[in-house]
Write a structure and sequence with these properties.
The chain is an alpha/beta fold and 107 residues long. It has one domain: Glutaredoxin. It has 4 helices and 5 strands. It starts with a strand and ends with a helix.
Length: 107
Amino acid sequence: MAKQIEITDANFEEEVINSEIPVIIDFWAVWCGPCKMIAPIMEEFAEEYEGKIKIGKVDVDHNPNIAVKFGIRSIPTVLYFKEGNVVEQIIGAYPKSHFTKKLESIL
């Protein structure tokens, strides 16, 4: 069973910037209702695309440096990285098909 990776200020460069496969990062917080709505989608992606993409989660309350670096002002925000660069962004909670469409565009 594939799992999501907790991305922190400490491991961001290793897990995201230096990743050989695309990375999707879900910026979230425990108190965020819409974040809880998209969490199952990210879990499904971790299993469905295992080995093709990496799914990470950034708790914005515990890792503010990453959130500030990418200008995260609203959560949930999902950033799609390829070769260490942001190539897509989704702000807000949407159906799985919306996230899948962006994901397919970077594979």
